[in-house]
From TrEMBL:
<keyword id="KW-0472">Membrane</keyword>
<feature type="transmembrane region" description="Helical">
    <location>
        <begin position="21"/>
        <end position="38"/>
    </location>
</feature>
<feature type="transmembrane region" description="Helical">
    <location>
        <begin position="81"/>
        <end position="100"/>
    </location>
</feature>
<feature type="transmembrane region" description="Helical">
    <location>
        <begin position="106"/>
        <end position="126"/>
    </location>
</feature>
<keyword id="KW-0812">Transmembrane</keyword>
<feature type="transmembrane region" description="Helical">
    <location>
        <begin position="50"/>
        <end position="74"/>
    </location>
</feature>
<dbReference type="Pfam" id="PF09900">
    <property type="entry name" value="DUF2127"/>
</dbReference>
<dbReference type="InterPro" id="IPR021125">
    <property type="entry name" value="DUF2127"/>
</dbReference>
<keyword id="KW-1133">Transmembrane helix</keyword>
<protein>
    <submittedName>
        <fullName>DUF2127 domain-containing protein</fullName>
    </submittedName>
</protein>
Length: 133
């Protein structure tokens, strides 16, 4: 056994649903950071989209934490799964009002996509894998 194969044998691979959830979580976090960063750059006084400043700041913090939780899911750590579920539930709670009250089409579509991804990620993490015979 070589050194590479022994370390590969010790590293658990994530299940397909967990790997998919981790990748979707990274995609969601990346999209959130990309869309929220310009709002953060404008500052509180330059926020003209109608989104409360606290929600903008919270979305950025949640997105950064989602990167950390994605690593935990990928590494098959229980804390990663729990943190990812909690962050996605919070993201859904704070993003769902944007579907109805979003000022522009970009905010409404972004809220819809974000909420659908939140639901998909939580579903993938809570789904039981079928037992193999």
């Amino acid at each position: 056994m070589t050194a590479d194969s022994s370390t590969a044998a010790l590293t658990p691979r994530p299940t397909t649903s967990h790997a998919t959830a981790a990748v979707l979580n990274v995609v969601l976090a990346t999209l959130t950071v990309i869309t929220v960063l310009p709002e953060l750059n404008k500052g509180q006084a330059g926020n003209d989209d109608g989104v409360p400043w606290g929600i903008v700041l919270l979305a950025f913090v949640l997105a950064i934490l989602m990167f950390v939780s994605s690593y935990g899911v990928w590494a098959r750590q229980r804390w990663g799964v729990v943190l990812t579920i909690v962050l996605n539930v919070l993201s859904f709670i704070f993003g769902a009002p944007g579907i109805i009250f979003g000022g522009s089409a970009f905010l409404v579509i972004g809220s819809i996509v974000g909420c659908v991804l939140n639901i998909a990620i939580v579903y993938l993490l809570l789904r039981r894998t079928p037992a193999q015979a």
